[in-house]
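note to self: dont lose this again. the chain is below, predicted strucutre after it. 350 aa total, dont forget to put it in the shared folder this time
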Amino acid sequence: MNPPNLAGPLVAAAALAVVPARGGVTMLPPVPDAIGFAGAFAGVHEGQLIAGGGANFPDGTMPWDGGKKVWHDRLFALDLKEAGAAWREVGKLPVANGYGVSLTVPEGVLVIGGGDAKENFREVRLLTLVDGRPAFRELAGLPVPLAQMVGAVTGRRVHVCGGIEKPDATAASNGHWMLDLDAMDRGWQTMPSLPGEGRILATAAGIGDAFFIAGGCSLAADATGKPVRTYLREAWKFDEGKWQRIADLPRGSVAAATPAPVRGDAFFVVSGDDGTHVGPPKEHRGFSREVLRYDVPANEWSVAEQLDVPAPVTLPAVPWRDGFILFNGEVKPGVRTPQVLYFTPPEPKP
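---
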């Protein structure tokens, strides 16, 4: 695939200093952290990309070598409208937090749930920037604490599905909740549960009034009581009050960018852990560089393209102009990246 046109919508609108890369992405300025973050929150408010939280291994020691995972509260902002803009650190989340759901809505950035090493959270906040500093509005909390769930917006409705209530859970939820942004006094409404297995780290998408969820993994306890993952290829559509199973993913996909980038009547699963690597984590080759396209009217999956950059997982996708910003993530087990990508969903192949 040819490099994206740097005179296209992103640069024309944002005038950022960018570096071209093949595979449907443009490199934005990396976040000012040498390691980067997985499971961060990110969204856009009034042309400002706000991102932060998540977790990493700050001393570089991986977990299988005794490294300690650390959750963060730092928040950064990047002016997407300013020529040559640079990241700046603007403040902190109320608590160190990661692996929740972040969604861009007209009012700001929704920061939903998440957790740390000890507990998962119910809190839901609307994040904005006021005079360059983060401001938080407390919204109705989730019915249960959740992390590693997924969410997406359909019109003015926010859907959340799946996840785990405790960090050491050995079973994942198939629960499904909805918050109407025009009737927030009603709080989170319990919706029909996902008919498939409970799951974590799936991919969600919103197209029109339909909410989609694909892939992820279920959990079960092993003989020692520790959680074991089963990779799932099921995909589902929720519309008009009911779930419908749609075509299975062509491969496993855990922790792909979410909510999924959307173009027209299609959504895209960018990267994801396909579960094919079963050797020692230090010998991991990296995650899938495939970008899968789901065509809603045809109910078909196809390979849209291949990324030509290290493929990230456990990361948020943020809509901006004609594309989506992919913030940081994990490029190998335990290995974070400070990279920030701008992904332009490709046109369907003729």
